[in-house]
Amino acid sequence: MGFYHWLLLISFPFFAIIVDALQASEGDADPIYRDCVEHCELTGCVGTQCFQHCQFTADGNISDGRWYLQEPLYLKWRQWDCRSDCRYYCMHSREEERRTFGEKPIKYHGRWPYHRVYGIQEPVSVALSVLNLAIQFHGWISFFILVYYKLPMMNNAKTYYEYTGLWHVYGVLAMNCWFWTAVFHSRDLDLTEKLGYSSTVALLGFGLILAIFRVFNLKDEAARVMASAPVIAFVTTHILYLNFYRLDYGLNMKVCSTIVVAQLLTWATWAKTTQHPSRWKLRVVVFGGALSMLLWIYDFPPYWGFVDAHAVWHATSIPLSYLWWSFIKDDAEYVTLTRMKKAT
What we know:
The protein is mainly alpha-helical. Helices cover 65% and strands 1% of the residues. A hairpin with a 2-residue loop joins strand 1 (45-46) and strand 2. The chain is elongated. The two termini are 43 Å apart.
């Protein structure tokens, strides 16, 4: 079976996550968990653990205001209030009970029962997101140095590589995406979720446009506009839908999975036919990206309350991103040398 067929085989099951995405978390419907949260919001306690910000006055208001308003400015973003703390401690209390009966962990409000560290909701995913951000910055800055300071320039001070500006935009979008991903994993709020989803969709959409431009070698401005306009319109509409109409997780997974598979198939087709000297790097990135999708399908609860499938997926992105930027730099050198030979 060829490389292209293997990619199709691996990519197709990715759409299976759509079914799971549309289902409610099992923990949300657990009557013991729901009773615990309701009791905690009334009394401010889960077992022997009580919270100052759940102490109410006679008129029903929190006695001292929400506790995070009394914290230093750099800690206020966490916004752990009475309800969120009640959900957190009730979730872990219920999981302790389930563990004594030999039952496996379940999701609550769409998330696994993670352990917080200094108020950070998913510390491992945050750390890996920051590492991905660093890799993207390193890749982008090294690409910048290569095209402007190491490779020859044309007489009009422009680069021979026609895709330089596009890769700069891609680098900025990638760094923006991983920044908001780190923030979202730090604290799951409505705002951080919207910013995380929106930045991811924007990166994926622009990545698809870049793939079309490079694979089909589109240089004419009119051709580029015709190819990119439908993608830009689709991505923009989806982002507006998520932010101003409904934050639909299931729909977002459908959109992201469709764009990712389209990107992989586009690059895979070119990787199979091109004679590019660094095509092996492209093949590794495409095949590795397709394999990493399996971590979305075969989701598993976090080991020790920290490392789940999503965190492992973030870990696989680090070497793939490094190799991806290495291919981009090789492509810049290859196109530059090719154009210089044709010009002489």
